[in-house]
Write a structure and sequence with these properties.
- The longest helix has 33 residues, at 211-243.
- The protein contains 24 helices and 22 strands.
- Among the domains are: 50-149, Nucleic acid-binding proteins (OB fold (Dihydrolipoamide Acetyltransferase, E2P)); 254-283 and 298-420, Rossmann fold, CATH 3.40.50; 452-608, 3-Layer(aba) Sandwich (Rossmann fold).
- The protein is of the alpha/beta class.
- The strands form 4 sheets. It has a 7-stranded parallel sheet, sandwiched between helices.
Length: 693
Amino acid sequence: MNNGSKEILKKPVQYLKGVGESRARLFQRLGLFTVEDVITHFPREYEDRGNLKSIIELWDGETCAFEGIVASQITETRLRKGLTIYKLLIRDHTGMITATWFNQHYIKNVFTVGEGYVFYGKISKKYRSIEVQSPVYELVKDGGMKNTCRIIPVYPATTNLTQNVIRSVISNALEQVDGKLEDILPQNLRNTYKLCEINYAVQNIHFPGTEEDFKNARYRLAFEELLLLQLGLLSIKNALGESKKGIQFKPHAEINEFVDKLPFKLTNAQKKVFEEIQKDMESDKVMNRLVQGDVGSGKTIVAVLALFKAIRNGYQGTLMVPTEILAEQHYKSIVPLLEPYGIQVALLTGSQTKKQKAEILEGIKSGRVDIVIGTHALIEENVEFDKLGLVVTDEQHRFGVRQRAALSKKGDNPDVIVMTATPIPRTLALILYGDLDISIIDELPPGRKPIETYAADNSMRERINNFIRKKVQEGRQVYIVCPLVEDSETVEAKSAMETAERIANHDFRDLKVGLIHGKMKHKEKEAVMKGFVEQDINILVSTTVIEVGVNVPNATVMLIENAERFGLAQLHQLRGRVGRGQHQSYCILYNESKSDISKERMQVMQKTNDGFIISEKDLELRGPGEFFGTRQHGIPELKIANLYKDIEILKTAQQAAADILKEDRLLKKEENRRLREVIQEKFKEKMNALSLN
């Protein structure tokens, strides 16, 4: 990119025609600070306003464009305080139509009788009258229609920033950069994949001349975005592999003895994944492996086997988890397995006393502690290892890339295992964890009963309450999950506090009801969880704080209020809190929404217990944006590509990225110079976190 165009792109948004200081603040709310931000603020949809109709052709309920001449002055009718209607008569050679605006006081001074305008809006036909409500309008004699007579972009917006203003400012920005954008994609790549040139692409993604222009522009921009993502992640992976020599662990026969003496048999999937891990550990490259497995698939024992191998090779290991409850649970389940082998396991959490911490820290530093299980407390500066060889993080999406890196830095290039029970479609996993190798435990241990899942509405409440009472009388326990902690005036959804109060005082006043949520102090949460684990509490009302953690085999009913407010993957995670013991378990989803998408999501939950099928559907129905926050992964957000709809483009871009790096591993060739510069800029955060920049 030449310096001239660089300067234009970095120019603050307030210096664009039509912006100024106060409007710049509105654009900044949308994350638009520079000219470059503005031209890459892509439309979320388009309206075809190019097909002009005559008034007689308009039909009820449609949103369309028509041309007409102003036939009257504006009339003003004040219906009540705060509600004034403005009406305007418009005619063409086929008939008359009334345009109506509400509380738009400025509209009185806009139109001139006898002038021709193009209008665009929603048509309403009642009896013999025909109306268009709050139409967009443009004067015909002005020409250069920006808001009618063409395919019109509709942008993500904010209060007090209209679509017309956004379009106008983007149009002004495009004029400034027209023909000056330097293409970062090499010509030979564009030829191979039939990609249009960047200036054409940016112009036609905003204001396409034809549908073909739009398709070409979108394909090019989505391809570029996904290519940069793949190149960035593969470059990080290459750099990790090249820059760091890993520990070469040796095979150890005692592992087979350890496996044989486990109180259960490993599944074939667990064996396969552990083989992949062993192969990594025995190579001289640093292992960076993601172990994906549905709730209950047995990821933890695979991690324990890897930790056992590290210890028997004279190294220490660590397991970092997102909550103290989960850390304690892992500690209690792992100690009995490793104690017979003389392996010292310690627990390190934020709530321990100074004395407890000091003792554990000394044990870690001296090497007396072999494995330490803990929360974020593990990455504090005062935690020093004697010889850290293996780092395991559980529920990786709860940690940022920096935290994972900070823990790794406590050893000399230790191997890394990342575990997640959040099922992620493989395509998305390749994006989020492109710097990792992926292993999947795709088999549940034998004998686990599928959880019976039912969607219900409020008409079923009494029947479901009776069912809950019956289960409690049988000795079982129940989770009730709510989307909010406290009542909210802005969101209509049941709060955990309100629900706990109602249940404790009305529905189940004879039962013991506990409440747990994220705003509670740690000790309070721990006490409630302990009460539930020890069966002193029959019903636990909670927010999603229990999504990850506690293993209570006696809990067999998971009831989720306002299930429509949760993503499918999250519903599946919550459902996975039950079904952990010998008794049949149930998940009841209260769905308060009437929308088709909500009904479809409930059907998916009822049909399958397979987390990977559910995650694919979640990606399809909600799109990738909400599905998984990419920010904490240090990955740039996608502005135009959609990981579900653009799966074929993604595959092509992945192939292109692999081919480029095969020819030019470090992107040193002149033709790839701009690609390298852009990748370094986009992945700066991730590279810094991993000390690669």
